[in-house]
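Journal club prep — side note

Before the paper discussion, L.F. wants everyone to see what a predicted structure for a comparable chain looks like in token form. Sequence:
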Amino acid sequence: MKRHFAILLAVLIALLSVGGALAQDGALIIATELDDVITLDPGRAFETTNLTINHATYDTLVEIRADDLNTLVPSLAESWTVSDDGLVYTFTLRSGVTFASGNPLTAEDVRFSWTRLKNLKGNPSFYADTVASVEAVDDLTVRVTLSAPTPAFLTIVTAPAMSVLDSVLAKANGATDAADADTTDTANDWLSQNSAGSGPFVLTGWTPLGEITLVRNDNYWRGAAALPAVTLRHSDDATTKLQLLERGDIDVYENVDKDLAAQIQGNADLQLSIGQTLNITYLAISGDAKFNLPLSDARVRQAIAQAVDYDGIINGLLSGYADRPAAMLPLGVAGSDPAKRYERNVDAAKALLAEAGYADGFEMPIYIGQGAPGGIPSETLAAKLQADLAEIGVTVTIDQRPTSDFLTAYRAQELSFLFATWTPDYLDPTMWSDYFSYPDSGPAARILLNSQAIADAAAQAAAEADPAKRLEIYTAYQDAHVAEAVFVPLFQPQQLYALRNNVQGFAFHPVYFMDFYMMSKS
């Protein structure tokens, strides 16, 4: 009997050591929308939910914390130096850090991770565009040489896509950093169900439109998290999510519908947290004639921009929990001036259409995904835009698709008129200007944007180290975007979270939204 008891005790201890997977009483349960998830591989993922998951399961060399968004702080790198010419960054890694697997962190893991990211040639590979080489000088020293001075590089390093993978574990499951990694790397399926990081949690599974599950990494180098596990459950029904929260079946309701805010504030068992995002939900209007001839005329695009009832969207559909920049530079970022944004003017919009030769209007589809950008159901926002444009004679039909299908078609340059949301991966203006400017990258490539004025301003700003000069360039960059009217911001939302009162430590972050390591349940 004693032998059997000893065996049972050993089994229980072993199970608990993988991260408290059995200790569900303390697990954090979150209701959110998971319809955007395509992959959880840090080298391939370029959506929104993955930012939260990758931050929880991986670490970067440098980070920016929620309590000070203007300061770079050490993470896996305890220090770094930059050469006088701005081309060489040398990072000194912390000693004694291990991955969740138990493998030690070394400079080779950094070299492998960043080289793999670049060679995968996926959506987030742009972050490594200026990385000419990564060298493991010794076990704890990494030397990175850039192809051109990139003042934003340290901020870019904080992006979850720049996370450091356990190269031994990743390679054992199909990962490669070879030059042909885009065709030979087979780790995507494994990395979407498991993680190979050093973060405070370990990914244990993802079911599309179902759940994402994490368990605690008890060997985390900063010390074990308070939460034994985290589960994100998919739900796209606001009423259901609130009912689950009120009953105590979930702990957090992410991205609360704005019209439910007062009800939450009136419930003594709940708390409402408001986070100011740097997200922009925008209209994308392709000016390429292959898509839609009327839209190739800037006057038509400007007419559409002036037809939108922005106040109706922000005050009516978002209950005032939003603001609006003039261009694809959010409020709070250098160069963003809301005074230059489009305002609704139906008469001016009609005059522009007539001047362009479309006095009688025209027809076109608007392509949308599912979900609720900023808390507005996509179909509701589309119907509002449909009604607004009808007032200037433009007939819009709504083409709604599953979000993963919508994103795939958008990235394949198949959609001409749509709305989408851009969520930053790091906190520098280049997070927007690098992707909404050039004909060969980001959303700009997706709608076949080809504006020399926008591209030139973006390139100049990215290379400028002097803050005052950089601000001048970004001001010109914004003006060029307003004139082109290919990306028209609809709103920059605040994000609402409803939490049970026993949840502590939540602090909104504009990149990864929630930091599970800082959270606990009493």
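L.F.'s comment for the group: The longest strand covers residues 487-500. Keep this in mind when we get to the figures.
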